[in-house]
Amino acid sequence: IAFITETWLKPKGDEGIVSQLRPDGYAKPLNFARTTGQSGGGICVIHREPLDMQCTALTTMTHFECCQYKLFINGRSLLLICIYRPPPSSKN
């Protein structure tokens, strides 16, 4: 499982780049791009195909970016969270 930050990917139009991030045997990368219209930032999640992972909702944050997953393995679940705080700027 890889969480990649500062992807600079957009919600629409960068699907070709996202698909190139996918190594053989891995599921389609999940792109969490900024939706505020700002450039930069973003989180991408890449995991092996057979893993049972489920995205779970988080409250929208204004000062950092995050995504949360539940990984189901051997009848148990493990919560995985990626938090990325961009460098200070006039916006944050």
UniProtKB/TrEMBL annotation:
Keyword ATP-binding: yes
Swiss-Prot/TrEMBL keywords: ATP-binding, Helicase, Hydrolase, Nucleotide-binding
Cited InterPro entries: Endo/exonu/phosph_ase_sf
SUPFAM superfamilies to which the protein is assigned, alphabetical: DNase I-like
Gene Ontology molecular-function annotations: helicase activity
Superkingdom of the source species: Eukaryota
Protein name, per record: ATP-dependent DNA helicase
Organism name: Elysia marginata
